[in-house]
Amino acid sequence: MWAIGQCGLTDLKCGVKVWLHLMVPMLRVRALSGYAIDYLEKLFIKHEDLRPAYSVIGFRDFFPILDVVFSSRSNLPVSQQRKLIELYPKVKMVAFGDKADCLRNFFPSFLARVGTGSSAALQTELLSCLVTCLSKDKHCFSVWRQMYIKHMKQSSILLEYLLFHWVTLSNTLDKKVLRETTRAFSITNEELAAQGKKEDMEGYEKCVAACTSLLQKLSNSGFPWLLVFLGLVTVVAGIFTLDVYTSQGFKGSKTYRFLEDSGLLDFFIQVWLRIELYSRIVYNWLAENIPYYYAKVCEFCGPYLLLVWSKLKAFWTLLVEATQAQRDWLAIKIPECLNWIDAKVPWLWSSIKHYSSLIWSGIWYYSIWLWEHLVYSLHMAGIWLQENVFTGNLSLENMSKTLSSWLAVMQEYTSALVKWCIGVWSGKNN
Predict the structure, then answer these.
(1) Which of 104, 93, 84, 94 is nearest to 34 (CA)?
(2) What's the pTM value of the predicted model, to 2 decimals?
(3) Which residues have a Cβ under 8 Å from the Cβ of 44 and sit 6 or more positions away?
């Protein structure tokens, strides 16, 4: 082992092959496991750049190593087990490599091993690797869809893991592909329920609940402007309340002094007095004129409304009397017709309900698909316009600068106008 392992001191790829084929089987032998682990540690210390050894460890070779690293029944001493766990991330890096398309080969085995009575550490590592596959290789979503029915229990565990760590994982996953995959799972769940097979599927109820919750999170991914606004209002109100409370009243508070020093307090008082004055005038006018105009409207429109109401009542009475025979006939024949249909084709109503549900699911799915593609097309059209039309003087930067200068000028004129109005107002009051 020592003689063959010397080649790894100069060539990392050769050294990883020697460790993989010669020394990994020795990890289960207590007397030789220490040398195998020390050799791997020397390789990684000697060669800091792991890129030459990428893809040397295939997915068939990786999982025996994974079992040894996280096995609770391993014969390794505690110190060697701990050292092997510390070296495991670099082993995984070598196995995954820098090509994302190789992760689709790892995904089926990772998913099949979830929830098989393994240790908690191995379970966490499997779920973490599954998320890595989904985030780096979008084709893994397609593989997951194909495996969903046969691995529903494992899928429910993965879906719950995504929900529980959604805050940290939402930025690493492609939300569009995840949304399409979750909708596909929901449609599959409905089909299984319609076929009466949900009782035979372990983890069905958890999958249904997880898909519903995940779709809600994916649909509520916008920026929470309302919450931010309410938060700002709450903070300002809290600061104002604390200021008034600590100052033994509003007049002794810093807010009052600021408003008084800046002149805003007098301005607000004058505005409030004007609003109160004109509100009182409007209220008195309404209290005096509304009864008068209401009486005039009733005097003019009342007879016509009574006439229309009497005609409608007469028409309704005539319609009821004229259609009495037909309504009695329908009341007898419709139940007989429904009973006859139920006796001849008892499966008709359930089939109509089932296919209506399928049609609605298809319409909903393709409507969402059409909307997403429309949004994507508009986004690409915007990018094309930005690159081909909005250039030069029409570029967004130049337009932004022009708009900013216009806003600055408008702000100056508006400020001057406000100052002039306040001066005029103060002059009239004086």
Answers:
(1) 84
(2) 0.51
(3) 50, 87, 90
